[in-house]
Prior knowledge:
Blueprint: E1 2-6, E2 11-15, H1 19-27, E3 36-41, H2 48-59, E4 67-70, H3 76-80, E5 87-90, E6 101-105, H4 106-109, H5 119-133, E7 137-142, H6 146-154
Parallel strand pairs: 3-7, 4-5, 4-6, 6-7
Antiparallel strand pairs: 1-2
Amino acid sequence: MINVVKGSYKKKREYPDVTESFFEYLRKQNQKQSTGSIIIIAQKRWGKTLVGMAIVAILMTFPERQLWFVDCPQLVDILNKQFPNRVFNTSDLSQIPNGAIIFFDETLVSLSGKRALTKYSRKFGEALAYTSHKQIFVIGCGQSDGMIKDFRDKA
Length: 155
């Protein structure tokens, strides 16, 4: 169980810890036709990118799957050490092949609620539309739940 103290009245709530069952579900998605969208929302410095990379590590167990970043070349060289010749950067989503993972990280490109209608967030919406057509996993990390509404409206 996860204990959460919510609000100023310090009411304690308990939620079941579903972490292991979530990762077990991901382990079963190691086929090319697997698809999905995962949005990770949390405050600054709470480990969103770390959780996203843990998800990527599980999904990349399928040897033909590629990882694509959008406008984030700084991670390609680092992750190519772990996944040789399987990590790429692009600004053109149409070149991403079927069965890939697209990783968006708000903090890596400084996306914020004020820039929610920018070219970058439109690309995120476009990627969400690709998920079922190209058997793609889209993983997005952000700090604002307002982003979910913006992206849902675009997808």
